[in-house]
Design goal:
- The chain is an all-alpha fold.
- It has two domains: 78 residues, no CATH class; 121 residues, no CATH class.
- Helices cover 60% and strands 0% of the residues.
- Helix 5 packs parallel to helix 9.
- It is globular, with a radius of gyration of 20 Å.
């Protein structure tokens, strides 16, 4: 049930994201419209991910909606304090952390992509601002927790196994993949949305099939 509810919320996100201001509106109205659409769409995507990953379905999504509605009204623009920008994630630091787990990563000489920077950049864009501080520690804890599962995935579908010989599952064995599967479990809708903007989905589909997340988004 939680998967169906998450899909319904994600569908609402798509509908809202594709909406536009009434034809002939003034520029200021259009700017306000699009800003509101971005805020609402972002919040719906977060509800979808929370509903999909917590497994609590309607209770999880309803609690988030209620909490959002109970927030006090925003102050007038001139009274809005300037917020500190969220800390940036250094891709090299994240990659170095992933490289420290040899049971989950193939040797450099046998990887399909010596440089998987494009995959890493897109995946890191699915790490929300409030998750960036301490993300490397979060990733390390995730890998340690799923050690047996990652070992098995590398053994059965990594470089040198039969499946990759047919041109599939090429991401398995890449250090960037540790970040991908962590996001796959934490923010599946956001990850796929970012991925579809930049990369071929077949790579994500294959990895999703092997990893077997709680909710599959590929068709």
């Amino acid at each position: 049930m939680s998967k169906l509810e998450a899909g319904a919320v994600a569908g609402a996100h798509t509908w809202i994201s594709e909406s536009s201001a009434p034809h002939g509106s003034e520029q200021r109205f259009e700017d306000g419209w699009h800003a509101g659409v971005r805020d609402v769409a972002s919040y719906l995507l977060r509800i979808a991910d929370t509903t999909a990953t917590t497994g609590r379905g309607l209770a999880a999504s309803s609690a988030m909606v209620v909490a959002h509605l109970q927030q006090p009204a925003s102050p007038a623009p001139q009274e809005t304090p300037v917020e500190e920008p969220a800390p940036a994630l250094d891709a090299e630091d994240v990659l170095a952390a992933a490289e420290r787990f040899p049971w989950a990563v193939a040797a450099p000489g046998v990887r399909h992509w010596p440089d998987g920077g494009d995959f890493l950049d897109v995946t890191l864009s699915a790490v929300r601002p409030e998750e960036r501080e301490g993300y490397i520690e979060r990733l390390e804890a995730f890998v340690e927790q799923h050690r047996a599962r990652l070992e098995e995935m590398l053994r059965t579908h990594g470089p040198g196994s039969r499946p990759p010989s047919h041109g599939r599952y090429a991401l398995i064995g890449q250090p960037e993949t540790l970040v991908i599967v962590e996001r796959m479990g934490s923010a599946p809708f956001l990850l796929r949305g970012q991925w579809e903007k930049e990369l071929e989905t077949v790579f994500l589909d294959d990895l999703e099939f092997v990893w077997g997340p709680r909710i599959r988004l590929n068709r």
